[in-house]
Each structure stands twice: as structure tokens, then as C-alpha cells.
Amino acid sequence: MKVKKVKIGIKSLKEVLENFAETAEAIERGEKVKKRRGIYFENLEAFRRALTEKRLEVLHVIKKERPSSVYELAKILNRDAKNVTQDLEYLKNIGLVDIKRTREKKERTIPEVKYDMIDLQIAV
Fold it and tell me: Greatest CA span in the chain, whole angstroms?
């Protein structure tokens, strides 16, 4: 079984803009451009603020327990559902969690993590 990874990196705004410019120039020249996916933070401190221990725990529990709702996730984590919802919304906005809405007996919000590993890359 192939391990699915999500790449997270540290890149300054200058590096991001340089990469964008290089890609745009390659496209203009008619070159094929390899699709690169990842989530980048401007510095290590921004990364630490985004992926707190509680948010990493949320990701781990979603992957391991596969909760059927945000309420169930909050119960497993022994946290307030409102706080868990806020963390999920943030994780969704940065691309680390998918939210599926379903209407079985009642409407449910089901969090999903579609990768097995976070690959943190920091250039030196």
C-alpha cells in the first residue's frame, strides 16, 4: 500500500514569488510544468502557530478513528465542539482537512484526512 503524504514547507514570500515567476516563464516558453502541491508557511513560527499540538491531535484522531461527525470527534478528543469546529475550519482553510456534509437521518459534518503522513521540508 502506498503511503499518501502531504508536503509542508517553509518558504519566504520572496521564494514563493520567485517560484511563481519561474513557473510562469516556463509556461510562456511552452514547457511542460510539473504540478507541485504543498502547503507553505513563511517561517517556522507561522508553522508552529498553525499546527499546534491540539490541531495535530485532531488530525491524528480523524485519521485513526474516522469519526462520523464533529460532535463525535469532540467527544473522542474530550474537547468542546465549538473549539474543535474552529480548529477544523482552520485546518480546512490551509488544506489539511476535508469536510464532507451528508444528510442521513440528520445533517452531519464529517471531517476527513486523506493522507497518511505530513512531510515537513525546511531548506537550510
Answer: 55
